[in-house]
Amino acid sequence: MPAVNANGANTVYVRFLPTEIGSAMGAIAIQNALTTNVDVTLIGNGLPVTHNYVTFNQQPLAFGSGYSQSAVQTFNLPSDLSNIAQIKMFLQIDCPSSGCDDWDRFANVKVKDVESGNWYEIGRYITPYWTGTQQLDRGLEFDVTDFKSLLTGAVELRIYIENWTDKADLITVDFDYIEGTPDYPYYAVSEVLGYHINSIDGVPYGVPHSFDLDKSVSIPANAESTHLRTVISGWGHATPADGSRPCAEWCYRTHNVLINGSGMFSHYMGPLGCAANPVSNQNPGNWQPDRAGWCPGMAVPARIDAFGSSMAGSAFTFAYDFEDWTNDGNNGGAFYATSTYVVVKSTTPITKPTVAD
Q1: Which residue numbers are catalytic?
Q2: CATH topology of domain 50-356
Q3: Which residues form the Peptide-N-glycosidase F N-terminal domain (predicted)?
Q4: Least confidently predicted of 16-30, 215-229, 339-353
Q5: Whole-prediction pTM value?
Q6: Can you tell me the distance from the alpha carbon of 284 to that of 290, in angstroms, rounded to the nearest whole number?
Q7: The pLDDT of residue 6
Q8: What residue ranges do the domains of the chain occupy?
């Protein structure tokens, strides 16, 4: 400060670095024997160190006119996750000059499990009508920490939209690797149910079918935490309807997860508040009425079911039990695209759970 301004009114900015994550407060005193002391209150918010990785960037997905509904690429992601507490995935939909697809479409992001060669669904969403997700600063957000054992090193990713028009959606996917102390240093994940190709490739509802919903799962002996992660969304306008709610897009249902033959977890396919979606520029699309467990222009929620014990060294049977209902065949089929994963964690290196038919 120039001496000539020393006795005038001056604004002094104080920059400080919080030592912990979260809200931080402090105080400093500016003292001088020749004038009144000044007390400064410090208020700030400590943020964790975050490393961002962009994968797909403005990748067009459509059908016809040289487009494809899917894209696959390999990306280099961090090789050392020892100080990564959380991984978030963001997906932004932008529109070309011709505009985005008119309809709400089933869409997802998958990572390849190198050991099995299978594609694991790490995030599912329904596209908005007519528009992208630009009303959200970073697009749709997904917590994909459960898949951290696969999101390291050279990683093959696949994006897909069930878009049957040549009006492309432009997809950008990026990941935040957030520093901190992990709940457990070692993770492993196995697929239990993998019916997530598209909306009508899911489990047929209300009719006899041959889809295998019964599995045997064995947990490693050193597991210290075990949980299930399920993503489910319904499609179709099959009848009889519950009032004006045909199945499985609209009909509210409660489905059960049976462990060793008994109901342990339940999944309520109910309203999510579609009319409150911040992606609100979807007119003239029918985006505001509540679907059963999903909304146009939103991520389909992951349903986390944690076991009360570590389940270490145990084996159990798993069955997905859909609420009873019979399709009368008068208005097409009903389908549930369903993915379930079993995630184990440990303080020592851990192998994947074994899943058998």
Answers
A1: 104, 162, 249
A2: Jelly Rolls (2.60.120)
A3: 56-177
A4: 16-30
A5: 0.90
A6: 16
A7: 62
A8: 16-47, 50-356
